[in-house]
From TrEMBL:
This is Pyridine nucleotide-disulfide oxidoreductase. The keyword Flavoprotein applies. Residues 378-486 form the Pyridine nucleotide-disulphide oxidoreductase dimerisation domain. Gene3D superfamilies: 3.30.390.30, FAD/NAD(P)-binding domain (3.50.50.60).
C-alpha cells in the first residue's frame, strides 16, 4: 500500500485557473502539488485565446489593407498562411511545449506531477501510483473539452476541433464550420480572409445566439461580406467523409460539402473522470456548481470553465484570485499562530514560508475574502467588427421582470464612425434598470468594440447612476462618444 504524501493543497488541472492558483499559493509558502496531464497553461495559450487572436490579428491586417482602396491609394493583398503558422509555433506555443511554464512553477517551489489525477476520498488525490493527502484541500481547474454532437457518422470522420484548426499549416480550399458561436465565427472569418471558402452551419435561428439579436445580425453581415456562407436553423443529421472531403446532411435534406469540417458546437466538462463520487459530489450536471467562494463542497474548490460560470480566461483568473484568498484565509486559521507547515511534508522547498505568512497575517480575515459577483461579466467576440457585451441582454433583463429601458445608437451616425467609414457596421445598445437608474447590460459593436466596452463594464460593475453617466464628458471624436447618444436614447 503506497503511503500518501502529506501536502497543503493539490491543484488538479493547470490550465489558466489552476496554474494561477497553484503558482500563487506556492509563492505564499504553501506546499502545493500541481497535476497536469497535458500542457501547463491549458487551452488558452496553446489552442485557444492566444493563437486564435494571432490568427485574427493577421486576418484583420489583410482586411485593413484591402480597405486602403478609396481611402488612401491602392494595395494589392496576397494572403500567406505561412507566417501565421510560424508565429503560432514559435511565439505562442513553443511548438506545444510547456517546459517554460513547468519550470516557472517549480522555480516558485511547487511540486509538478505530469499525469491524470483523480480524487480518491476526502483530501486525497491519486495520480498513477502516487497518492497525495491535501491538508487544506483540493482545487479543481480541469476545464472543458469540445462537446461533439451526436450526429450520425460524425465520430468516424477526421473532423477538426479548435486544436486542429489552430495547428493547421496548410489551409484547405474549403471549410464547413458546424456551430456559429464565438469560436466558429472568429475562425470562420479568419479562414475566409485567407481565401478559404467557408460555410457556417448553425442549429439555432441565429449565430452568436447568447448575445443581443443586433449582435447576431452584425456578425452575420460582417462574415457574409467576407464571403462566408451562413446557414441557420439547420439540424445536422449525418456526416460522411471520403477522398473528396466532407458532406454534412441536414434533417430537411440540406447538403453541404467541403474539404474540411470544423466542429465547434460548445464545450463539455468531463466530471465523471474526477472521482467526485468518492467525496459524495453529484456529477450528473453539465458543470460543477460552486458557491460564491468557489466551494464545490467542504475543502474542494473549482475554478474556470468547469464551474460553468462563463468559459472565459478572465473568469478563470477572477475566480482563481478568490480561491487563493480563501485558501490562505483557511491556512492562517488552521495555523492558529503556530507553524502551520509543521504537519505537511516538505514539497519543493516550500516548507517554513507558511509560518511567515501566518506571522504577518497579510491576507486578511475570513470576512475579507472576496465573493464572486458575475453581474458585470464582460464578453468580447473578436470578429471584425468586435462584439463586446457586459451584463444582461435586453431579453434576459425582461425575463427577470426588471423595468427595462433600452438605448440604441448606430456607430456610422457618430462622427468617428463616419470618418472611419464603418459603412453600416457597429452600434451601442444599453439596457437600464429604470427603477434603480443604472445600466445592467450593454453591447458595443464596432472596430474597437471590445475596447469601447471598458467604460460600460465600469458603469455596470459600479452601478454608476445614469444621471452621472449623462453628465460625463466623452472625448470627441471617439468611438466611445457614441455611448452618450445611446444614453440620450434610453426609453
Ligand atoms: C479557440 C478558443 C478561443 C478562445 N478565445 C478566448 C478569448 O479570446 N478570451 C477568453 O477569455 N477566453 C477564450 N477562450 C476560452 C478559454 O480558453 C478558457 O475559458 C480557458 O482556457 C479556461 O481555463 P481553465 O483553466 O478553466 O481550463 P483549461 O484551459 O481547459 O485547462 C484545464 C487543464 O486541466 C487539465 N486536466 C483536466 N483534467 C485533468 C486531470 N484529471 N488531471 C490532470 N489534468 C487535468 C487539462 O489537460 C487542461 O490543461 C477560448 C477558447 C477556445 C477553445
Ligand atoms: N472571444 C472569446 O472570449 C472566446 C472565443 C472563443 C471561445 N470562447 C469561449 O469558448 C466557449 C466555447 O465556444 P463555442 O463556440 O464552441 O461554443 P458556444 O456555445 O459559444 O457556441 C456553440 C454554437 O454551436 C451551436 N450548436 C450546438 N450544437 C449544434 C449542432 N448539432 N449543429 C449546429 N450547431 C450547433 C450552438 O447553437 C451555438 O451557437 C464559448 O462559450 C466562449 O465562452 C470565448
Amino acid at each position: 500500500m503506497v503511503q500518501p504524501e502529506l501536502v497543503d493543497v493539490v491543484v488538479l488541472g493547470l490550465g489558466v485557473g489552476g496554474e494561477e492558483v497553484a503558482g500563487r499559493l506556492t509563492e505564499a509558502g504553501l506546499a502545493v502539488v500541481g497535476v497536469e496531464r497535458d500542457l501547463v497553461g491549458g487551452e488558452c495559450p496553446y489552442w485557444g485565446c492566444i493563437p486564435s487572436k494571432m490568427m485574427i490579428r493577421a486576418a484583420n491586417a489583410l482586411a485593413e489593407a484591402r480597405r486602403v482602396d478609396g481611402l488612401g491609394g491602392t494595395v494589392q493583398v496576397t494572403p500567406d498562411w505561412a507566417p501565421v503558422a510560424r508565429r503560432i509555433r514559435a511565439e505562442a506555443t513553443d511548438n506545444w511545449d510547456d517546459q517554460v511554464a513547468v519550470q516557472r512553477f517549480i522555480d516558485k517551489g511547487g511540486r509538478f506531477v505530469r499525469g491524470s489525477g483523480r480524487i480518491d476520498g476526502p483530501g486525497r488525490v491519486r495520480v498513477g501510483d502516487q497518492i497525495f493527502q491535501a491538508r487544506h484541500g483540493i482545487v479543481l481547474g480541469t476545464g472543458t473539452r469540445p462537446s461533439v454532437p451526436p450526429v450520425d457518422g460524425l465520430t468516424e470522420t477526421p473532423y477538426w476541433t479548435n486544436r486542429a484548426a489552430v495547428e493547421v499549416e496548410e489551409l484547405p480550399a474549403s471549410l464547413l464550420v458546424l456551430g456559429g458561436g464565438a469560436i466558429g465565427l472568429e475562425l470562420a472569418q479568419v479562414f475566409a480572409r485567407f481565401g478559404v471558402r467557408v460555410t457556417v452551419v448553425e442549429a439555432l435561428d441565429r449565430v452568436l445566439a447568447v448575445e443581443e439579436p443586433e449582435s447576431s445580425e452584425a456578425a452575420a453581415a460582417a462574415l457574409r461580406a467576407d464571403g462566408v456562407e451562413i446557414h441557420t436553423g439547420v439540424k445536422a443529421a449525418r456526416v460522411e467523409h471520403d477522398a473528396a472531403g466532407f458532406t454534412l446532411r441536414g434533417t430537411e435534406g440540406e447538403e453541404f460539402t467541403a474539404e474540411r469540417l470544423l466542429v465547434v458546437t460548445g464545450r463539455r466538462a468531463h466530471l465523471e473522470e474526477l472521482g467526485l463520487d468518492t467525496v459524495g459530489v453529484d456529477t450528473s450536471g453539465r458543470y460543477l456548481p460552486v458557491d460564491d467562494r468557489l466551494h464545490v463542497t467542504d475543502r474542494i474548490w473549482a475554478v474556470g470553465d468547469v464551474t460553468g460560470e462563463g468559459a472565459f480566461t478572465h473568469i478563470a483568473m477572477y475566480q482563481a484570485s478568490i480561491v487563493v484568498a480563501d485558501v490562505l484565509d483557511q491556512h492562517r486559521r488552521a495555523a492558529g499562530g503556530a507553524d502551520p507547515s509543521g504537519t505537511a511534508s516538505v514539497v519543493g522547498g516550500a516548507v517554513g514560508a507558511a509560518s511567515s505568512l501566518a506571522a504577518t497575517g497579510s491576507s486578511g480575515s475570513a470576512g475579507s475574502v472576496p465573493r464572486a459577483d458575475y453581474r458585470a461579466l464582460p464578453r468580447v467576440t473578436f470578429t471584425d467588427p468586435e462584439i463586446g457585451a457586459v451584463g444582461l441582454t435586453e431579453q434576459q433583463a425582461r425575463e427577470r421582470g426588471i423595468n427595462v429601458q433600452v438605448g440604441f445608437t448606430r456607430l456610422p451616425s457618430s462622427t468617428r464612425g463616419w470618418i472611419h467609414r464603418t459603412d453600416e457596421v457597429g452600434f451601442i445598445k444599453l439596457v437600464a434598470d429604470a427603477d434603480q437608474g443604472v445600466l445592467i447590460g450593454a453591447t458595443s459593436v464596432g472596430p474597437a468594440g471590445g475596447e469601447v466596452l471598458s467604460g460600460l463594464v465600469v458603469a455596470v460593475h459600479a452601478a454608476v447612476p445614469l444621471t452621472q453617466l449623462r453628465h460625463m464628458i466623452y472625448a470627441y471624436p471617439t468611438f466611445h462618444r457614441a455611448i452618450s447618444e445611446a444614453l440620450r436614447d434610453l426609453s
